[in-house]
Amino acid sequence: PEFMMSFKRTQCFLKLSIAFASVNYVLFLLHPLSKIRSPHIQKKEKLSRTDGFNETVDSAGLRNVFDNMEWYNNRSFDVCVIGAGLSGAVLAERYANVLQKTVLVIDKRNHLAGNLYDFIEPETGILMNLYGAHLFHTDNERVFSYITKSEWQDKAPWVRYDHEVKGVLNGKLLPIPVNINTVNSMFGLNIKDSAEMDKWLHNVQEPCTDAQEIITDNCQDAESMAISRVGRELYDIIFRPYTHKQWGKSPSELDSSVTARIPVRNNHDPRYFSDRYQLLPSKGYTRWFAALFDNPRITIALKTDYFKHRDQMLKGCKKTFFTGPIDQYFRAANLGDLEYRSIRFERQILADIGPGYYQSSSVVNYPGLEFNFTRIVEYKHFLNQKSKHTLIVKEFSSDEGDPYYPVPNQRNRELYARYKKLAEKEEKEKGVYFVGRLANYKYFNMDQAIDNALQTFNRIEHSPEQTDLQECWTSGLSDGLISLVFGTNSASQLAANTVTSWLRNFPATNASVHVYYRSTLARRLHRNSLSGGHMLGCGMQLSEHMLTPNRGNEAAVFLAYIVQHYNALPEMVIFIHDHGARSWHSEPTIFFRRLQAYLKGIQTQQIFAHSKQEAGKDNLNSKFAAQVRTLSSCYHEGSDTRNPFCVQHLAKRKLLDAPDAWRLAYTTFEGILNQSGASDTNNHGKFWSCCASFVARRQHIHLQPLTFYKHALDAILQVDIPAAVSGRWWEYNWYRIMRMQDQSIEDLQLYLKIDGQVWPKDSLDRLLNGRPFSEGFKE
Predict the structure, then answer these.
(1) Collapsing DSSP states into helix, strand and coil, what is residue 416?
(2) Burial of 393 per CB tally in 10 Å (0-12, 13-18, 19+)
(3) pTM of the model as a whole
(4) Residue 254: partners with Cβ closer than 8 Å, 6 or more residues away
(5) Mean of the pLDDT values across residues 730-740?
(6) What is the dihedral of CA 30, 33, 34, 37, to 10 degrees?
(7) What is the pLDDT of residue 573?
(8) pLDDT above 70 covers what percent of the chain?
């Protein structure tokens, strides 16, 4: 027995040892520091500079793409763009869509999108970039508005993506950029918050000094800039070796801008960027570029060398935009070459690894000189792609290859200044403009490249009207003193997506947005669309609320907001009801344009426009604020008397068979109005208006006491009144209760076209004198 017990113990120990060894072996294989390659790696290859597979043209599904210039035949174009990358695409799109100009785009590569080009790798099915990972981030509202234009969102929607990077530092995998967790792990510290991190940084930072050893903010080079930000020890571990590998030069030989743009965190934020908008195109950059180029006025020629056709094109192009290397354009000037850094890519496919990953994040940096590459990118992480395989790409910085990064130092600055003078002369004499990173010999992030192209377009064409680009604006009220309130019970993702479209078409600076979900399904669908508010523009802040049971339609939503914020209301509240994408309440290009007109009217002290020409068109009041209805006789207490227009309206809404419900709604809410000590509204009994969406000032809401709104909300949620009836009662009484109808008097003297019907010019007299409203009604 003792022998058997000992044998079993030995057996158990061996099993545990084997299991433990197996787990460690797998972890060792997957760890980025492993010196051996996984046996699953089936291919290791350098990526070509075309599409990695063949020389055929990738037209991205467009019909306006050619692979040569044989068709050209001395045709003329309003605009010619050299380079189908980011700067060229924006310029081509603006000229074609805004000014209706004919545009020719040529590129020597066999694909669109420049260095942003991506494609589905055929063996793994993973979307990857050919020229390295590109992550879009910006705080520029105009650029954000541009890339997420609604017509492009339908074809190639952008989605929120917060990029995180790890780095191998002293044998540990730590967050990059440096944050509290990085410092604590590297130096064995216990920094807890931003105040402690700021104190630590202050103690290690070495300020920059000038030639007289006087402290200055103007650091002379990348080395002194880095040490002034993170201290000498972190500089030696991260900045110095990584900069040397990336640029092939010592940091002391480079401008301070090189290390100035590398972020340093004083908190636990693991994200690489801190910009408000961090996005990826959900179907890839190439699909988004195809949306930009999808215009019959744009013609694209790929695999075409501009310099072989330059003389011919200068004759056939009224304007030319060059986005390539400026020194290449002026090669004949013999001024010398500007320096550029390039990247060599080495791809490895790891087959049949299952749903997992090779590394813990999409990008892992290797700053140390013990590694001959700068980083490893695993594209499967981006957009949470599904594949039983994965692929990784190692990146090696190089002086040879396509130009990627201008090298910022004194020699190159001075040489570029000489090229810039030639460019100014070429623009003046030949109408050739130099746009983009390579043509300006300047490092641009993607948003900066887009903004540079937009600025160039506006400079040359004197800022033509671009209604598809909405700038952030204020209403004349203080920032943050506007709230948008809406409720939704949408049961489809399509309907939910319109909510984001609504808000993106209303760029009010720092407005607060309150969404009330009237079902769990609506909450789930809208959360997918709103992404926590990250897709809203202009600093708008999102607050989400759940409101159940689902009674009273939008009335319950509006009352809930008022009750919750009664003592802290903003100066203006915009109440919006979700009637779907095609309703005039909700359709963004109509509803929010009128809303903007209204608020911009406040800026100029004009509450409403008064011209007949505007009535029924773009005037907010014509369909929004001045929908006056004479429904004073609709199911009042103890009466079935019906105004003819009321009958027509209720028949349309299929509510004629609910007189008891209407009577109950009237007695319930009128009773609450009287019992709560609300302001007397009886003198407005014949001046009722209909609107599920309206604008209210704080003083309008405060005309009635908080108790009134509380009791009304309780009644909606507890009294057995059909939602359509209680909601409708409030539609016809909001203006009456808040006494906002007085603002509409002047507009009521216009012909107002509503629901296909023309209101008589004397509508105001009819209403105030109690005359039948239906008399003289024109279909």
Answers:
(1) helix
(2) buried
(3) 0.70
(4) 221, 222, 243, 247, 407, 408, 409
(5) 70
(6) 70
(7) 85
(8) 68
